[in-house]
Design a protein that fits this description.
This protein is α+β, with helices and mostly antiparallel strands. It contains 14 helices and 14 strands. The protein has three domains: 74 residues, no CATH class; 143 residues, Jelly Rolls; 170 residues, Serine Threonine Protein Phosphatase 5, Tetratricopeptide repeat (Alpha Horseshoe). Strands 1, 2, 3, 4, 5, 6, 7, 8, 9, 10, 11, 12, 13 and 14 form a 14-stranded mixed β-sheet that branches. Helix 6 packs across helix 8, helix 11 packs antiparallel against helix 12 and helix 13 packs across helix 14. The longest helix is centred in the first third of the chain and has 18 residues.
Length: 434
């Protein structure tokens, strides 16, 4: 068989799989896969990805042991590609529409399996579109719904997920991504690895690692919503005019947490962004997006940490804190975050720093009181901030060990705002106690 004839055979099998797999008998499938595997052994691959058009065969096949084993073997071998070729993918449980648009059925999930072994699970009724593919990754648009994403890390991995006005850049990680198109709400929860999320404001970059989550909101025009206060919350105090950025005093970077206040008497202020004074951010944020955390820390140390803390723009201090946290350089991360709060009070970055200072206070040697105090501070400064759900949930979990009365107050507030949040079960348990 000539190379051209072998390629035609592979493409014919791929086309038959896409259009008629639901009509084939087990014997026909066995014979087809044997011929296909023979061609694959000779280095012949289909020109287009296999995308079965009939989801019910896949759902039934996934329940059949022998058929599943055979199909998995064929799919894995079929998806092998040259190192410089764009990634290929298989759609399981959904139909590939125009422009590589994909919509899961209302009553069943779907899955995308890529040739680098990355996998994306679509919840029922979720809508996505594959915007582009190359040898390093893919660009996916989440129109509406929920995704469970598992990206395989390689030296040159580069994936991007768009959801309305939000963007999530991925080097290699597992995470949950949800986007409510009607409400303009993005939810991101990291299981492993690290991601970089951007909102409508180009200067706001959120770097998250395993165990962290955030929520971002935007209005119908794609503008960030950062000053929404619950109707039941007390009126916010008048906001002071922006202050000039000042250098930290020698004692401004002290590691002591703010004074904790009872949950029930917390005053929740609007989240306010403010212009940041200083030179344009350098390239540390870009290094964070590439996963090169060690280089950020090396450059900061080479420039002199005291000078960095005293003069670096807020975006650079944020990037340094992110890099240090990921490398478990907790003392360095704490210094950067405290410096950020001292030099840029009243900004969104300073409020975010309070949340991450709470996270650091939870790590060995942990301090429950300090962590709760920092979460209280974050929630007071950013009532509807991107980390509000996680801050309130963590505060509740910590108080459950030390102060059940305040824990129940936090649980009540949590369920009012996040009835389906990851800590909702704990909140209900606390409120069910006598």
């Amino acid at each position: 068989m000539s190379d051209g004839e072998a390629q035609k055979l592979v493409d014919a099998v791929a086309d038959a799989t896409r259009t008629g797999m639901g009509q084939m008998s087990t014997t026909q499938l066995d014979e087809g896969w044997e011929r296909l595997e023979h061609a694959l052994d000779q280095g012949k691959y289909p020109s287009v990805p296999i995308v079965p058009a009939r989801s019910r065969w896949w759902l039934r096949g996934l329940a059949l042991g022998a058929a599943t084993t055979l199909l998995a073997l064929g799919t894995h071998r079929l998806l092998r590609e040259r190192a410089d070729a764009p990634l290929q993918y298989v759609v399981e449980g959904a139909v590939l529409g125009p422009g590589e648009s994909i919509r899961a059925e209302a009553a069943s999930a779907a899955r995308l399996v890529f040739s680098d072994d990355s996998r994306i699970r679509m919840a029922p009724a979720t809508k996505v579109r594959v915007l582009g593919r190359d040898a390093h990754g893919s660009r996916i648009a989440l129109r509406d719904g929920e995704l469970e994403v598992d990206i395989r890390h390689r030296a040159d991995t580069s994936w991007r997920f768009d959801a309305g006005p939000f963007t999530v850049k991925v080097v290699g990680t597992s995470f949950h991504l949800g986007f409510d198109q009607r409400r303009g709400r993005l939810r991101l929860r990291i299981s492993s690895g690290v991601v970089e999320a951007r909102g409508p404001s180009p200067d706001r970059v959120f770097t998250l690692r395993a165990g962290e989550s955030l929520e971002l909101f935007a209005d119908a025009a794609g503008k960030p919503v950062t000053a929404v206060v619950p109707a039941s919350a007390p009126a916010a105090a008048p906001l002071s005019p922006p202050q000039a950025v000042r250098e930290p005093a020698p004692s401004a970077v002290a590691p002591s947490p703010p004074q904790a206040s009872p949950t029930g008497s917390r005053r929740r202020l609007a989240h306010v962004d403010r212009a940041e004074v200083g030179p344009a951010p350098g390239h540390w944020a870009r290094l964070i997006g590439q996963g090169d955390f060690a280089r950020v820390v090396r450059e900061a140390e080479r420039n002199g940490l005291d000078a960095v803390f005293a003069s670096a723009p807020a975006a650079e201090l944020t990037a340094l804190a992110d890099a240090a946290r990921y490398l478990r350089r907790n003392d360095l991360a704490r210094q950067a975050l405290l410096g950020l709060r001292a030099r840029f009070p009243g900004t969104a970055r300073a409020s975010d720093a309070a949340f991450f200072l709470g996270r650091l206070a939870e790590e060995p040697p942990s301090s429950t009181g300090a962590a709760v105090a920092w979460y209280e501070t974050y929630l007071a400064e950013a009532a509807r901030g991107p980390y509000a759900g996680e801050a309130l949930g963590r505060e509740m979990a910590l108080l459950a060990r030390t102060d059940r009365v305040r824990a129940r107050q936090a649980a009540r507030a949590y369920l009012e705002r996040f009835p389906n949040g990851p800590q909702s079960e704990l909140a209900r348990v606390l409120l069910s106690e006598p």
